């Protein structure tokens, strides 16, 4: 059982590091002058297909993995 806990702990540390890097890679959410025009530009409509959209998706996935691993490691069954 100690081996499983060690593997989960290493995975948890890797997820923590990856989550930190991905969050720091995100751009600011300020609209600047784009807010004056309503912010409904081509860039806003296709944001999910851009690199920024993929970074946001990676953040969500890593955050869920972080929470799940934290809960599993806290159960003390391993």
From TrEMBL:
Keyword match Secreted: no
Major location category of this protein: membrane
Chain segments annotated as coiled-coil in the UniProt record: none
Keyword Transmembrane helix attached: yes
Species this protein is from: Laedolimicola ammoniilytica
Signal peptide (from-to): none
Topology term for the membrane: Multi-pass membrane protein
Function: Involved in protein export. Participates in an early event of protein translocation.
Family the entry assigns: Belongs to the SecG family.
The protein, known as: Protein-export membrane protein SecG
